[in-house]
Amino acid sequence: MAQSTGRVAGKKAFITGGAQGLGAAAGRMLAKEGAKVALADINLAGAQAVADEINAAHGAGTAFAFELDVTQEDQWIDVLEKATAAMGGLSVLVNNAGIGGDGPIESLDFGLWKKVMSVNVDSVFLGAKHALTHMRAHQPGSIINLSSIAGLIANGNSPAYNASKAAVWLLSKNIALYCAKMKLDIRSNSIHPTFIDTPILDGFSARFGKEEAFAKLARQVPLGRIGEPTDIANAVLYLASDESKFMTGAEIKVDGGISAM
């Protein structure tokens, strides 16, 4: 069994999009550092596989898996109740679930626009709205929303993704100010990655081949490479821990220097 260093010992974290990519990486990282984690995903089998892996490494009862369509309010209410009961509380919410899929504004299908906004933005609203009910009883707490560098810097081909991730950025600040106004010891911050080696890049890799695709993306990054899931998981760990107890309404850019240009 892996030894915890305890940076988030006693924390109980609910993570959306936990079956793969950044959500799975965040779950592994938080569990390694002493937290219990609930992995929620529309892909229950994938979330369960990650939970089983975590439990094998850190002991039974460390991780739990739940099926969740993040666009459905009734499912949020039900699953948060079940996860809170399973973990014995809820102190960290990681709104990670998100999708790409986009195109120039003149050719973008309105249905796709609404789907991207629903998965990327409605999920954050619903998650925070209903998680706060449980987090009040387990303060201090932290809400961590995965935005994107594309929520701060626009391009000409991704209107839905740009708009959705910008909405997550400002909604994170709204939640932070609300919690502060309500005298809750619950913080809210956003993380803004650039290109990370996760399944969201699969379409680009299929088009050019992974090596060429990653080389194309790396040329846009001052550090000359794309990021790894652990780069983002480390930022999640910091925001989940009490090390960031005076940080709220802020954003962490994990972008290899893109935003500095």
Beta-strand content: 5-15%
Structural class: alpha/beta
Q: What is the radius of gyration computed over CA atoms, rounded to a whole number of angstroms?
A: 18 Å
The H/E string reads EHEHEHEHEHEHHHE
Assign a percent range to the helix content: 40-55%
Number of helices: 8
State the CATH topology: Rossmann fold
Question: Going by CATH, what is the homologous superfamily?
Answer: NAD(P)-binding Rossmann-like Domain
CATH architecture: 3-Layer(aba) Sandwich
Strand order of the largest sheet: 3-2-1-4-5-6-7
Described by strand count, sense and barrel closure, the largest sheet is: 7 strands, parallel
The top level CATH class name? Alpha Beta
The span between the termini is: 44 Å
> Outline, from the CA principal axes?
globular
Mean pLDDT: 96
Description:
The protein is an alpha/beta fold. It is 46% helix and 15% strand. It is built from 8 helices and 7 strands. It has a 7-stranded parallel β-sheet with strand order 3-2-1-4-5-6-7, with helices on both faces. Helix 3 packs parallel to helix 4 (110-135) and helix 4 (110-135) runs parallel beside helix 5. It is globular and about 45 Å long.
Summarize the helices and strands and which ones pair or pack.
Blueprint: E1 12-16, H1 21-32, E2 36-41, H2 44-58, E3 63-67, H3 73-87, E4 92-95, H4 110-135, E5 141-146, H5 159-181, E6 186-193, H6 202-208, H7 210-218, H8 229-240, E7 251-254
Parallel strand pairs: 1-2, 1-4, 2-3, 4-5, 5-6, 6-7
Family: Belongs to the short-chain dehydrogenases/reductases (SDR) family.
GO molecular function, one term: D-xylose 1-dehydrogenase (NAD+) activity
Keywords: Oxidoreductase
